[in-house]
Amino acid sequence: MENQGQGLHARVLDTLGPAITAGEYAAGTVLRTDELAERFDVSRTVIREAVRVLESMRLVTSRRRVGVTVLPAEEWNVYDPQVIRWRLAGADRPRQLRSLTVLRSAIEPVAAGLAARLATPAQCAELTEHALGMVATSRGQQLARYLVHDIAFHRTILRASGNEMFARLGDVVAEVLTGRTEHDLMFTDPDPAAVTLHVRVAEAVRVRDSVRAEALVREITVGAMAELDVLAP
Amino acid sequence: MENQGQGLHARVLDTLGPAITAGEYAAGTVLRTDELAERFDVSRTVIREAVRVLESMRLVTSRRRVGVTVLPAEEWNVYDPQVIRWRLAGADRPRQLRSLTVLRSAIEPVAAGLAARLATPAQCAELTEHALGMVATSRGQQLARYLVHDIAFHRTILRASGNEMFARLGDVVAEVLTGRTEHDLMFTDPDPAAVTLHVRVAEAVRVRDSVRAEALVREITVGAMAELDVLAP
DNA sequence: CAAGCCCATTGATACGACGTATTCAAGACC
DNA sequence: GGTCTTGAATACGTCGTATCAATGGGCTTG
Predict the structure, then answer these.
(1) What pLDDT, on the 0 to 100 scale, is given for residue B4?
(2) Averaged over B61-79, what is the pLDDT?
(3) Which nucleotide's C1' atom has the smallest distance to the CA of B7?
(4) What is the CATH number of domain B92-231?
(5) For B17-28, b where at least 16 C-beta lie within 10 A, e where not — what string?
C-alpha cells in the first residue's frame, strides 16, 4: 500500500479497511478491541482511534457490551476517497469501476455544460493544452503520458464547472482512468475518436457552446461505458 | 443538535465539526490537543479520537510538533454525510443547497433512466404509491406528509437504478428536500406541475420507457433549480 | 412459564508517562 | 557573510492501567 509510516493507527486502518471493504468480514461480524490490539501488537488506544475512523466511514459500528460490528455494504460511505481506493484495490474492483463509470456518465456532461458557461480564459487554455497533449501522445505506446493529459483534462472540466461537489470528483475520475489504463488496455493506443472528442470539447467550452460541450462529453462517457462492457463482462 | 449522549467524543465532534465547516477557523489555524482537552473538559484521548475522525473527513491534518491544522475548504470530503449535515446547518447553507441541487440535476435523471430498465415490480409499485401519495397530500397544508412521499419517491428511484453510488445519495436528496420545505416554502402548497411530473415518471418507469423517465426527471430537477433561483438569490 | 432482577462482559473515558518526529535557532565551518 | 550542522524545545504519538457505564444473558422468583 502507500500509507505505512504515518503512525501505527494508519497501519491498522490500511489493514482493516481493505479487509472489510473486500468483504472478508461478513456483515454482522463482531471484532473486539482487545483481540485487535493483540493481533496488531498495538495498544487499545490505537485500535480505538482506527475504529473511530472506520465508524465515521460507516464500515463498522461500535456498541458497548457488543463489540465492533461490521456493517452491511449498503451502509458504507462509498464516496469516501479512502473507501473508494480500498475497494478499487480489492476484489470487487470490476463492479466498483462500473459504478464509478456510470457516476461519471451522469456528472461529467453536466459539468462540461456548466464549464462552457463559467470557465475562465486560463481554464480554457488549460483544456486546449491538455487536449492537444492527448493528440500528441495518442500514438506509439505513450500511454503513461497520455493518461496524465487525460486526467488533467477531466479534472479541469470538473473544476471549471464551478460546483465544488463536481470538483471533488476529480480524484475519482483520475482513479478510474488510471485503473482502466493499468488493467485493460495497457498495450492498445487510445481510441482516435475519443481523442478527437476531447479536442472538440475544449473548443466548445472556449466558444461557450454549453449544449455542444455537454453532448460531446456525453459521447465520451458513453464510449467509456461501451469500452468497459467490451473489456469486462 | 441531534447527537448528544453517544459518548464524549461525539460531543466534541458536534462542536468542532460545525465550527470548522462554518469557517469559524480560517484555513491554517492550528489547534492544540491539550488546549482542546481543557476547553471541552475531557481527556486528551477523547480529543484525539475526534481529531482522527475530522482528519478522515479531511477537515484537519495532525502533524507532530505543529498541532492540528485546519485545512482549506477545497480539501474537505464534501460527500461525507456528516459534513453535508454540518454545512447545511451552518452559515453557507444557501450555497450548499445550490451545490447539492446541481448535483441532483446531474444524477437523478440518469438514475431514472436506469431505474426504468432495472426496477423490480415491487419498486414500480412503490413509485406509483408514493406518486399518488404526493397527489393526495399536495393541497391544503399537508406539506409534512407530502414531504415523506416526495423523499420516498426519489429514494426509490435512486435505489432502483441499481447503482450503489446513486443509491447512497438518497440521504442527500432527503436532506435537500427537507431543507427546502423547512426554509423556503413552508406555507406554499407544492407546484401542481411538479406533482404531475412525478406521477408520469412512475408510469414511465413502469412501462420501461427509459428515455421518457430520464426526460421527466430532468424536468423535475430543472424546476427545482428554478425554484431555488427564485427563492434564494 | 414468564417477568424482572443481578452480574459478567466489553467498550468508554481518564490519566500519567515516555517516545519521537519536527521545527527553529544557535553556532561552527567554509 | 552565508550555509550547513546540530541540539534543544515542543506537541503529537503510543502505551498501560484503572475505573465507569451500559447491555445482554442468565438466574431467580412469583
Answers:
(1) 45
(2) 94
(3) C12
(4) 1.20.120.530
(5) bbebbeeebeee
What pTM was estimated for this model as a whole? 0.91
Give the pLDDT band (50/70/90) at residue B232: low
Provide the mean pLDDT of chain B.
92
Look up the protein residue whose alpha carbon has the minimum distance to the C1' of D22. Answer: A64
- Chain B residues close to A49, C-beta within 8 Å: 48-49, 52
Q: Which three-class secondary structure state does DSSP give residue B68?
A: strand
Which residue on chain A is closest to B9 by alpha carbon? A52
Whether the CA torsion B2, B3, B4, B5 is positive or negative: it is: positive
Contacts of A49 (CB under 8 A, 6+ apart): A9, B48, B49, B52
Measured distance CA(B67)–CA(B51) in Å, rounded:
11
- In single-letter form, the type of residue at position B212 comes to R
Q: Which fold has domain B8-75?
A: Arc Repressor Mutant, subunit A (1.10.10)
**Who among residues 21-80 of B has its Cβ near strand C, under 7 Å?**
41-46, 49, 63-66
Interface contact B110-A105, CB threshold 8 A? yes
3-state secondary structure of B226: helix
Q: Where are the domains of chain B?
A: 8-75, 92-231
Cell digits of residue A139: 500514438
Using left for φ > 0, alpha for ψ between -120 and 50, and beta otherwise, residue B4 falls in alpha
Q: Which of B114, B222, B224 is nearest to B180 (CA)?
A: B224
Task: Indicate the pLDDT class of residue A208, thresholds 50, 70 and 90.
Answer: very high
Backbone dihedral region for residue B148 (phi beyond 0: left; psi -120 to 50: alpha; all else: beta): alpha
Q: To probe the interface with A, which of B6, B103, B210, B228 has the most A CB atoms within 10 Å? A: B103
Q: Please check the confidence at residue A204 and state whether its pLDDT lies above 90.
A: yes
Chain B interface includes A89 (CB < 8 A): no
Inter-chain residue contact B168 with A52, CB threshold 8 Å: no
pLDDT average, residue stretch A66-92 = 93
Q: Is the CB of A32 under 7 A from strand C?
A: yes
Residue A178 CB: number of other CB atoms within 10 A? 14
Cα A108 to Cα B103: distance, rounded to the nearest angstrom: 11
**Per-residue confidence (pLDDT) for residue A2, from 0 to 100:** 43
Task: Name the strands in the sheet holding A30-31, side by side, starting at the edge strand that comes first in the sequence.
Answer: A30-31, A67-70, A60-63
- pLDDT tens, residue by residue, B137-186: 999 888 889 999 999 999 999 999 999 999 999 999 998 998 888 776 56
pLDDT at residue number A186: 61
Q: Which of A22-26, A168-172, B6-10 has the lowest mean pLDDT?
A: B6-10
CA-to-CA dists, residue A104 to A39, A99, B64, B118, angstroms: 39, 9, 38, 19
